[in-house]
Amino acid sequence: MTQAGTQEALAQEALAQRVRRIVDATPVVDMHTHLYAPALKELLLCGADELMCFHYLISESFRVHRLPYDVFWGMSKREQAEVVWRALFEQSTPLSEAASGVIEIAQAFGMQPGRFTLHDLRAVLSDTPTAAYIDKVFQLAGVDLVVMTNDPFDRAERAYWAQGVEIDPKFRASLRLDTLVNQFADACQDLQAQGFDVAPDLSGRTFAELERWLESWVERTQPVYVAFSAADDLVYPDDGVRGQLLDKVLLPVCRRHKLPLSLMIGARRRVNPDLRLAGDSVTQASLRPVERLCADNPDNKFLITMLARENQHELVVTARKFHNLMPFGCWWFVNTDTLVEEITRLRLELLGPTFIPQHSDARVLEHLIYKWQRARDVVARVLTDKYGALVRRGWAVEDADIERDVRRLFRDNFWDFVQA
Ligand code: FIX
Ligand code: ZN
């Protein structure tokens, strides 16, 4: 290498270290998880067996063990964990994103490099989420707050909220309304049983009653946003049930409380129902309804994530057109090293640091550790590259700039959007 080349490589290495130090030191706000505050008791999952029974790993394990579905589902959680462990860590090398994540968790808990067993993992992790254990995981993950996914139609969860639970401030609520928006007939039955005067054809006092119901949940849970997911069937404007629910209930309530509406688009549910939670798939979807939602409702805010890789470019372009749209996260099947890097570069190149690069979607407490380790790796790599190019073009990049950008990406963009 020439002397100039060596100097440039050293400068790039020094830059990489500065960026890494700041990325590691910046605590994250994890704006979409399936974790629950400890007050919601058994809903907060942790420990080795829960990790093995993560639906990502269950679906991967079926490709190896090929057990009949009813045999697998008939087993206890402990037995299922053993089946998954054998398939993915003994009969296979844990190369997938989700399987290798388990190794990262074990490392973070001080497991010696080399090989370990499920028995070892059970000994190192706790299956009881004590306050000290939660603090330890948050600290290892570099996360200081997580947003839950709270479903008012889930009976177990509803029972806790009805008791007037006290929520640990490290956990914030989000109201997840898939049942209301995607299965209105079921939602109606449930609401009628709770004494709300609602009708499946939306007649009579339905809208006023739905608003009363939603207001009561906003009051009870103090959410940071309201959300639902959709496949490729979102339409807007729409005079069908979903469109009317949006226009007459969700959007007005969100406006009143300045709550963003979060749309998670592209999940095709129950493609293989035998796999239960693991049986959902992906679909491309149109961005036109999102465009119209943003254009026709300028006083609403929209958090949007798309599941299909093919939709990522259009989402970013749409965000350039509408400032009330905040793209977030690399969801589920696009949460892989390769795709997170591609999507993060694309977003930085078209939006600058004005998006939310990642959420964890953690279902088990310890997931926070590997999901955020991965996100930090990619964000640090991409930022180093981009800052390096700026320096070469003649723009000085100070630590304060890096700190401001990383804070925006990991926390401020979310809070500023929620609070706007
Ligand atoms: O709809 C969602 O919030 C999805 O993230 C989940 O339903 C999905 O099962 C999941 O865990 C993906 O990471
Ligand atoms: Zn999720």
Automatic annotation (TrEMBL):
Record keywords, A-Z: Isomerase
Q: What's the domain of life for this entry?
A: Bacteria
For this protein, the record's InterPro entries field holds: Metal_Hydrolase (IPR032466)
A single GO molecular function, which one? isomerase activity
Protein's name according to its UniProt entry: Glucuronate isomerase
Instruction: Please tell me whether the keyword Isomerase is annotated for this protein.
Output: yes
